[in-house]
Write the structure tokens for this entry.
Amino acid sequence: MTATGSESTKLIIIRGNSASGKSTIARTIREQFGKRELTIVEQDYVRLQILNGYDGPGRPYVGLIDLIARYALKNGFHVIVEGILNAAANGAMLSQLAIDHRGENFAFYIDVPFDETVRRHATRPLASTVGVETMQGWYRPLDLIPAIDERVIPPESTLADSVALIRTTANL
């Protein structure tokens, strides 16, 4: 691919299973850091809102996430790419994005056991349309991508702890 970003831009990848807190962590970081300098590329938004839920052969959301992240980095934004972003469908794209990024890269995997995932999911509006069986099909325990050297955030990490860890590690 082509180099993107600059030495001063930061790429932060936050992955984990459904209901692990990825979106909340990313949004909290942006609220604390500043909305104008930090772009969040949410897998769910790209897949469900922009592409209207399409997740079939070829998974076009993967390429669109890559394109949006590269565009933001190229234009001087720090970028958080967040979502389930399972390794099988997204690992190659995320690895290449990190390789091509001229600045610093930081990757985090939020490790939440399935029973806690189900408990958290039950508190969300999505629980009325997405059942436990569907979530079981999505669940991948410690679905790490070795090429991007992910730091595992343990299940006992609070929102404040997780945000502080990522902000400190990425020097935001």
User: Anything to note?
Assistant: The longest strand covers residues 10-16. The longest helix spans residues 60-74. The chain is about 45% helix and 15% strand. The CA atoms of residues 24 and 159 lie 8 Å apart.
